[in-house]
């Protein structure tokens, strides 16, 4: 029988569920990149078990400089570079979690995550159930995700449906620097594995971030804009697109309510239902292909549970059912205001 060694000792102030947050009391204006970096720094400072590793995360500080300075601050035993082998990166993380550490591996780009799929789906997602709950699997996989930056092939993908269909994984997507900070801190303290999808197009968005007052927890959505006519359900980089579209819709006399889902699994369906009952109409917007995208699941559930509250069918503004295109065609492929407004107009035309 394989011997499982004890967890490394917990630091003072830790709890059985994870280390207490010990961020320096401050409010600072941060980009999303800086907020994620700060979250990693604060998590590593709070708990010696937290390790950060991946391709180019140590010496280079990551291709987007998200992990800049962590190796210098915490040493090469806690922030280190790995070979270009995504399956090995996740396999290492699983082994370290079994041995009591709290790994935060990075997959450099969303399109690079597929070689790690077997480790994630066959092992990472199943260990807690396989061990009848005896083994926690506190692994947070950070993946720079989605489009909007004009990247080349394999550097812009929408992988969320793969992870959502894999039972045992939590899936979160921040849309603001504040959410990026707190969703990552909460993910790192979760006993379940978390797929943390970072919208690259929002990396340089900036806002004040309070690192002492926790934001909404995993499993809660946020109403970013109140409206009366149509509920727009979206997440990640498209939240800002939906908010800008809501301004355009005002000129047409349409009032849009924008719900930022934030957490795709667990999903805050209560907030979704409350909004849809108010407006009677819903449009789901996501970057991934239409067929079997997350919008299909949301539309099905709304139709099943809120059928008599609906004034129109649930519509979807999505990417196309084609491979993600070369960078020069990205703007034509990604859903934008025109595609969303078309759905809103069709919903409003229903009697």
Annotate the secondary structure layout.
Layout: E1 27-31, H1 32-46, E2 50-54, H2 70-74, E3 79-81, H3 86-98, E4 102-106, H4 117-124, H5 127-130, E5 140-145, H6 160-164, E6 170-172, H7 177-188, E7 194-199, E8 206-210, E9 222-225, E10 230-234, H8 238-251, E11 256-260, E12 263-265, H9 269-279, E13 282-289, H10 294-306, E14 315-319, H11 330-333, H12 337-349
Helix pairs in contact: 1-7, 3-4, 8-12
The helix-strand sequence is: EHEHEHEHHEHEHEEEEHEEHEHEHH
What best-fitting shape do the alpha-carbon axes yield? globular
How many helices? The count is 12
Could you give a short account of the major beta sheet? 5 strands, mixed
Mean pLDDT: 91
Task: List unreliable stretches of 5+ residues.
Answer: 1-23
In total, how many beta strands? Answer: 14
What is the distance, rounded to the nearest whole angstrom, between the alpha carbons of the first and last residues?
67 Å
Strand proportion: 15-25%
Strand order of the largest sheet: 9-11-10-13-14
Radius of gyration: 20 Å
Helix fraction?
A: 25-40%
Classification by helices and strands: alpha/beta
Keywords:
351 residues; 12 helices; five-stranded mixed sheet; four-stranded mixed sheet; 19% strand; alpha/beta; globular
Task: Walk me through what this model shows.
The protein is an alpha/beta fold. The protein is 33% helix and 19% strand. It contains 12 helices and 14 strands. The chain has helices at residues 32-46, 70-74, 86-98, 117-124, 127-130, 160-164, 177-188, 238-251, 269-279, 294-306, 330-333, 337-349, and strands at residues 27-31, 50-54, 79-81, 102-106, 140-145, 170-172, 194-199, 206-210, 222-225, 230-234, 256-260, 263-265, 282-289, 315-319. The strands form 4 sheets. Strands 9-11-10-13-14 form a 5-stranded mixed β-sheet, sandwiched between helices. A 4-stranded mixed β-sheet has the order 5-7-6-12. Strand 2, helix 2 and strand 3 (79-81) form a beta-alpha-beta unit. The longest helix has 15 residues, at 32-46. It is globular and about 65 Å long. The N and C termini lie far apart (67 Å). Residues 1-23 have low confidence and may be disordered.
